Amino acid sequence: MGMETLGVLKLKGLYKRSAKFYNCLMSIIKSKIRTIQDWPKPGIMFRDITSLLIDPEGLALTIGTFVARYQNAGITKVAGIEARGFITGAAVAFQLNVGFVPVRKKGKLPGETISEEYALEYGTDMVEIHKDAITPNDNVLIMDDLIATGGTLGAAIKLVRKLGGKVHEAAMIIDLPDLGGSKKITSEFGVNVYSICEFEGH
Ligand code: AMP
């Protein structure tokens, strides 16, 4: 299925109208994500989206699903979290005709930045955003490939809010609900986390 077909489906409102059709698309997308066991360390089931991105139908369905959801939401910027959130975030921003903002790991952005620390399993990490990337009237969609504990997303939400932006929603390809990240984000920040599919475990 190419972008043209997706455009027709969007026009007809099929994404919204038919739950059966929607579930079918979601299971096609899920089936194209491969799992690499014990990577990067023993016990982790790494949900690898490169197998989805390399597939033209998988890529079009994924981006088309996000675009269909947000095309009338008044989004003014898409903020993508390094690194895989850059891929989907930039494609969705292009289709929504809005700008893209990178949320990067510490020390990568050349301009004036603000930072936010978040907890990892062992220790902490930091994400940054350019100070002038978000303005108080922005309605921001935050994107990443996957939500696990929600630590990274929580820090990204704080950054957007520090600059006065409103977070419309967070959009992921994958949720790992057993880790409780999406529920935590909703209760702690009042931000809904939309995900195309879920995987058990971590
Ligand atoms: P968290 O901050 O715990 O929600 O972790 C989310 C970040 O870690 C995302 O940027 C993911 O790309 C990555 N991540 C965490 N767990 C996995 C996993 N099982 N498979 C693939 N990526 C993961």
Describe this structure in words.
This protein has one domain: 3-Layer(aba) Sandwich (Rossmann fold). It has a 7-stranded mixed sheet with strand order 5-6-4-3-7-8-9, sandwiched between helices. It contains 8 helices and 9 strands. The longest helix is centred in the N-terminal third of the chain and has 15 residues. A hairpin with a 4-residue loop joins β5 and β6. The chain starts with a helix and ends with a strand. Helix content is 39%, strand content 29%. By secondary structure, the protein is of the alpha/beta class. α5 crosses α6. The site of adenosine monophosphate (AMP) has 18 residues, from β2, β7 and α7.
Brief summary of the model shown:
This protein has 202 residues and is α/β, with parallel strands linked by helices.
What is the strand and helix layout of this fold?
Layout: H1 3-11, H2 14-17, H3 19-31, E1 34-37, E2 45-48, H4 50-53, H5 56-70, E3 77-81, H6 84-96, E4 99-105, E5 113-119, E6 124-130, E7 139-147, H7 151-162, E8 166-175, H8 181-189, E9 193-198
Parallel strand pairs: 3-4, 3-7, 7-8, 8-9
Antiparallel strand pairs: 1-2, 4-6, 5-6
Helix pairs in contact: 1-5, 5-6
